[in-house]
Amino acid sequence: MDIKAITSIDSEWTRVIDYAENCSWKAGINLANAMKKEHFTEWERVFIAIEDDEIAGYCTVTKTDCIPDVPYTPYIGFMFVGEKFRGNRISQKLIIKAMAYAKELGFEKIYLVSDHDNLYEKYGFSVIDKKIAYWGAEEKIYMQCLNNVIVIEVKDGLKKSAYTKEVLEKLPEWFGNKQALGDYVAKVVELPYWAALNKENNCIGFLAVKTYYGHTGDIFVCGVLPEYHRNSIGKALYNQAESYLIQAGCKYVMVKTLSDAVSYEPYARTREFYKSVGFEPLVTLTEMWDEKNSCLIMLKPLI
Which of 10-24, 196-210, 249-263, 265-279 has the lowest mean pLDDT? Predict the structure, then answer.
């Protein structure tokens, strides 16, 4: 899979116009017309995904989008993946490439407009505004900070274990029990898993989930390196996990953490984090771990 940015001087330009004009998405013709009229100026680009010399999808990075008179720029727009290529995370790859390009230009934030629910959240975007588009419908404006960190889903079991070990060993206040740490390192191999990577492509945080009975998600383990705390890394990881759980049909998501019956400041911060993303205390269980380390179960409805 090759993803590249093109302008009107590139050989693929005409080919992409033809593809967009004839694809199944009715907005494709709007992109084709904009490309024909060379509406892309200065640093604006069309991004294309190529698989075996076949166009698999496209998106754009532009100054404006379909909503007038707002102070936001730049935008990712015209996101489309061909039917035969769907299910291969091409949208994610296009977004990552577009974000990297915007970072290179010096932008600190990037935006997109969509009416989809629980789609772009899994890529770390959050809704910041709602406005009327030029065709009269209300659309959501999404934003993501370009803080040199991206969140990706990890499929490789060895990487999951390595990332987990690297991060948890830097968090002794939370994961000082070596046996428990080793259990996490071993068990994440088979679980849905997301990692936050910095610009050097090093893992700075991760989150893994389980599901029970087909309708309850569980934040199995999550950790972010101390120097990245309070930089929305945990929220970006959680947003990805929540989107996955919703798509999997879960009605609830839970997390187990140390109860406030135990006075321990690091876990007070953990509880506040989960409250900030919508969890509420459900029950404290002394029999799950032990009396000195009572377990608080926190719950969040997903529907």
Answer: 196-210
| CA torsion through residues 211, 167, 232, 97, sign | negative
User: What pLDDT is attached to residue 223?
Assistant: 98
What letter would DSSP give residue 147?
S
Non-local (6+) Cβ contacts of 149 within 8 A are 196, 197, 198, 199, 204, 228, 231, 233, 236
Cα separation values, 191 from 44, 171, 172, 217, Å:
39, 21, 23, 12
CATH superfamily ID and name for 150-301: Gcn5-related N-acetyltransferase (GNAT) (3.40.630.30)
Residue 199 pLDDT > 80, yes or no? no
Residue with tokens 């120097």: 227
Q: Tokens 């770390």 identify what position?
A: 124
C-alpha span between 277 and 274 (Å, rounded): 5
Indicate whether 243 pLDDT > 90.
no
CATH 3.30.200.20 is held by the domain 2-145 = no
Rounded Cα distance between 222 and 63, Å, is: 36
Region label for 22, one of left (φ > 0), alpha (ψ between -120 and 50) or beta (otherwise):
alpha
- The structure tokens listed for 301 are 């409805």
φ and ψ of 259, to 5 deg: -70, 155
Structural domain spans, the chain: 2-145, 150-301
Take residue 297 and report the two structure tokens written for it.
């179960």
The C-alpha atoms of residue 114 and residue 116 are separated, in whole angstroms, by: 5
Query: What is residue 108's DSSP assignment?
Result: S
Read off the amino acid at residue 47. Answer: F
Which residues 6+ apart lie within 8 Å of 278 measured at CB?
A: 300
Q: Are 111 and 65 in contact (CB under 8 A)?
A: yes
